[in-house]
Structure formats: C-alpha cells, structure tokens
Specification:
Layout (H helix, E strand, L loop, with lengths): L6 E5 L6 H12 L13 E4 L7 E5 L6 H5 L9 E5 L12 E7 L23 E7 L9
Parallel strand pairs: 1-4, 1-5, 3-4
Antiparallel strand pairs: 2-3, 5-6
Length: about 140
C-alpha cells in the first residue's frame, strides 16, 4: 500500500523490531542493498526495483526536529520510514502511518538485555498501526 510521499513512524523500545520491520518493508519493495540500522549515519536511501526509494531514518540521536530537516530528505518522492520519529516529524506531512511495536516486559528467557537489538531472542511483539490524515482516511489497516 505504500507509495511515494508516505511517511511511516516507528516507535518502540530498543530491540522491539523497528529495524526488522523496515527490513521487511525493504524486501517487499524490492530495495537494493542491505537494509540495516542507520543509527550512525542517521539516514540511508535504498533504491527499489518497483517504485520510489525507501529512505530509512533513525532519529534516536537527534535532539530536535530541525536536525531532521537538515538531512534534506526527499519526503515527497520517497517512502520515508523514521525510527524514533514520534514528535520529530510533526508538520512534515499531513498524513502519517504510525507503527508502535511493543514487547512484553521480561518476555523471553531474560537474555538479550546486553545484545545488539538484531540479536535479541525471538519473543512475541504487539504491533499497533494507526493512520492519520487524508492519505489514510477510510483505509482499513
């Protein structure tokens, strides 16, 4: 359902699966190259085989929305996914697809607290998707 101009905001604790979710979107869109966390580069653009680029942003280290604006992203021509974007992308678009991923506190076997988020043992997640604005009005998610 995603198309150029769509803004997806991913929210959840460390290790919840935000990058994994983006990796899945990349696979579905035919993104070229490995979709990995852009924590240190802040944003990565992945050309796709079937449409607009996938822009993957990690706003975790940004202290204010002006820094996000400084990245000079192609908001209108790409599908932009922003991890940790809640409160950082207000005003960027009149429509947002908000995805909140949670995992149970103490879920799993207690391992993984000191692991890289991509290496955390599998455990159930709860994903709530909410679309706001005219783009998502009347769309069943």
């Amino acid at each position: 359902m995603l198309r150029a101009g769509d803004l997806v905001v991913l929210t959840g604790p460390l290790g919840a699966g935000k990058t994994t979710m983006t990796r899945g979107l990349g696979t579905a869109l035919g993104a070229r190259g490995q979709v990995s966390s852009p924590t240190f580069v802040l944003a990565r653009t992945h050309p796709t085989t079937a449409g607009p680029d996938l822009v993957h942003v990690d706003a975790y280290r940004l202290s204010d929305p002006v820094e996000l604006d400084d990245l000079d992203l192609d908001w209108d021509g790409s599908i932009v996914v922003v991890e940790w974007g809640r409160g950082m992308v207000d005003g960027v678009s009149d429509s947002v697809l908000d995805v909140e991923i949670t995992r149970p506190t103490g879920g799993g076997d207690g391992l993984g607290d000191d692991l890289d988020p991509d290496d955390v043992p599998d455990e159930p997640r709860r994903v709530v998707v909410t679309g706001t604005g005219p783009r998502w009005s009347g769309t069943r998610l």
